Amino acid sequence: MKHVEDKISGERHYNEILAEKIKALREKALKKRRTYSEEQLNKPVAFWISEDRLLNDKGKELTVILRTKGCQWALGETGGCSMCGYIQDAADKIDQDQIINQFAYAIDEKIEELNEDPADYILKIFNSGSFFDDCEMNDDLRKKIYQKIADINKIKEVVLESRAEFITPEKIAAVNEYLKDKYVEIGIGLETVNNYIRNNYINKSLTYEKFKQTFNNCKEQNIGVKAYLLFKPPFLNEQAAIDDCSYSITKLVDLGVNTISINPVNIQKGSYVEKLFYQNRYRPPWFYSLFDCLKSTLESINFKETRILSDPSGAGTKRGIHNCFRRECNQNMSKKLEEFVLTQDLKELDIGDHECECKNIYEFQKDFF
Hints:
The protein has helices at about 15-30, 40, 70-75, 95-115, 140-150, 170-180, 195-200, 210-220, 240-255, 270-280, 285-300, 325-345, 360-365, and strands spanning about 45-55, 60-65, 120-125, 155-160, 185-190, 225-230, 260-265, 305-310. By secondary structure, the protein is of the alpha/beta class.
C-alpha cells in the first residue's frame, strides 16, 4: 500500500488497516459527488456574517467557504481523516480563476454591510482542504486574495487553514508582505496532542513535533496559530474524550498557541465515523462532557493569552453534540457555550437551574460510551 511520508522524518504516521477502510468509504462517496454548473463554480459554497470573538473583544466574523478541488490527504491513497466528509463539497474540476471569483463574489455581496457596521471584523476563509496547498490554491491566487483583504480596513483579523506540511516559511512571508497591517492566524487541525490517537484513530498523519515546528515557524514571523482540537475522536468514551482534550488544552496553552478551537465531532456523510454511528459504535459527545472539560481545565490554568473557541456544527441534533433530545436542554447549553466564547468568562458555563434530568443518564454512561 502506498503511503504519504512525513516531510520531516520520512516515517509513516497512520494506521494502514484504518486507512484502507476509510479509503473504501471515500471512493464510494466520491462516486456520488455532484457536478457543479459554471455559475456554481464561480460562487462560494457559503458566506455569512455573525457575532464572534476577536482577540481582545467581541466583534463580527465574515466567513467565506470556497469550493476547491479538495484535500489532497482525503483524495490520496489513505482516504483522509476518519471524521471528515468535506471532500464531498469539493469540485472534481475547477480552475484558479473560478476560486478568486468565488471570493470576490462574497466580498462584493457583503462589503457595504461591513463598511456600515461599527464593529471590527475577523475574516475566516475555509476551503475543502488546505489554503497553502499549491495543488489546491496556487501562489498567484493566494496573492490576489491577500490584495483584496488588504484593501478592507474593517477587517482587523484573518484566519486561514492548512495542513501543517504545506505551511512553509516562504508562504508565511508572503502573508506578511500583503497583510502586515492585520492580525493573521493559521488554523491547523492538530486534533489532539496525543500522537497515537491522532494517527491511529483519526488517520491524520501528523506528529506533534511537526506541529510545534510549524508553530515556531509562524511565531518567528509574527503569525498566530489556531489549533483545532477534535472533541471525542472515534474509539474514545466520554471520560476519555474529556481527559484527552483537557491534556491537549493544557499543553497548547503552555506552548503559547494563540487560539484553541474545540470541535466536537459531528457525523459527516461518507466518513468512517458515520459508519461507526450507523453501527451504534459511536455517539457524538454530550454537552456535559465539553463543559466539564472546559471548566475543570481552564479553572486550573492561566488562559488569558489564549483565545478559547468552540462553535459546534450540528449542535442539538443526533449527528452533533447533544444531551437528550429536549430542545430546551440543548438550546440552553448552546447559548451558554456561545456566551462563554464571546466573553471568555468561565462563569457562563455554569448550568445552574438549567440542569436537565438527562444528566443522570449521562453520568451513568460516560465511562462506557
